[in-house]
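2024-03-11 09:14:02 INFO queue: dequeued item CxC2-like cysteine cluster KDZ transposase-associated domain-containing protein, len=505
2024-03-11 09:14:02 INFO validating residues
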Amino acid sequence: DLPLKEWIPYRDEYLAELLHLEGRGDFSLEVCPVCGLENDEEIAYRCLDCLGGDLKCQDCCVKEHQSHPLHIIEKWNGVFFEEVSLKSLGLVVQLGHHHGSPCSDPRFTRAFTVIHVNGIHDVCVGFCNCENKGRAGEWREQLLHRRWYPATHLNPRTCTTMEALNHFHVMTLQGKVTTYDYYNGLEKLRNNVGLKKQKDRYKPFSRSIRQFRHLKLLKRSGRGNDATRPVELTEKGELAIRCPACPWEGVNLPKDWKDGPEAQRFKFWLFLAIDACFRLKRRQVSSEGRDPALGGGWGYFVEWEPYRRFLLSVTDQQELSTCSGLSTLTGANRDSRGYASTGVNLGVCARHEFVQANGAGDLQKGERYVNMDYICASILRHHYPGLTKVFSYDIACQWSVHLAERLLKLPPLLRLNLIFHIVYFVVPKLHIYGHQLRCQLLFLLNWLWGAGRTDGEGIERPWAHMGPVATSTRDMGPGSRQDTLDDHFGHWNFIKLVGLGKRIK
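2024-03-11 09:14:37 INFO prediction written
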């Protein structure tokens, strides 16, 4: 890298400037640049977040930070700078009033913690309790109006700024940063050696993050703009981002699509890919009763209770492999001890790789047919029955045998319109070469009229994206894990959505 090589002769200069910033630099202790006060002992405060870094007196520092109470302040003690809080300098954050107007009857909370992108702050907060309280609202509302998210809705003592919530959300979706690592990073920003004793606010922060994920899914799905339905009336799969490039009856299909020449109808086929990921395990931690999902069944996971009841009802299913080229079922059914879930089944549209609404479900003991049967039927209920479906699955040669008989055992919730679906089964193009010759002749995509260059391997790409999430989700409770994975599936679909125009043009 040429710029890096050109920088090497200047590194002494850069190092000197870094050391220069540790001291007073070129700023004088003689006169406060704001009020003109002349007192060496008073003109000792600087802000690391404000541009400039000049030294000011205490009063001016507090006045200038009435609207910036979370900036980092340092005081010159005659030898070096030491960090001081704006709270210790007398700053009070008054809530419920605009433009810094005072409250005639404030309720002060001196032990209040605010988690921000630049660290964890101890702040003095004044809640409005005067005649203006009717407009200002409850304490939680006063905090939210200030873009501070309360950790509890009654008598809050900890909150996280919206900037910190958004920052973590983007970092975890893009970089798979865990809540634990992010919080510990915030602690180390201002206390890297651990000499200062800090209150542990990890649990409130984690709770706020989980709520924020859920609210983001609701907000981006338009649930906050529907005044006729409260959130609890959200329909199954409603929060999932749908693929706009796949065929949707009444949306992007011509009115006469059913009447076209039979040789041209492949243009309106729906290609789906299904598979399991065994990295997304979950240990036997907590339970559905103690840790339920905030929006179970509203997004990408199936609703748990009907799924659980169905799995318990199927105990006699035989899953013998007749294909000598694969041992997927045999290998997958091992090593389930100590795990409540041994992985996740998932369905995507094979051509555009969008995770399907209600297209994910936990595995309990390997890649059993009963799990995949339920997931596939759950996906199909969101698609028009008259569309021809093509299912790509690496063990389709085994799974498709007796599938019709197994589907009859599904609960009425999923079985209502299955008889109207026309389905073809194929094996992805890379996986097919691990099968015996008979499978290659019957399930190769190249032999399917209308398949084009579809490879059927689209399901593998979300797994590469989701794999790093497994490190944190394997020790979560069932609800926390589902909410987290739903959030990451939604991010995957959103990235696919915004890039779709460039991809298919």
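2024-03-11 09:14:37 INFO annotate: Residues 237-315+325-504 form one domain.
2024-03-11 09:14:38 INFO item closed
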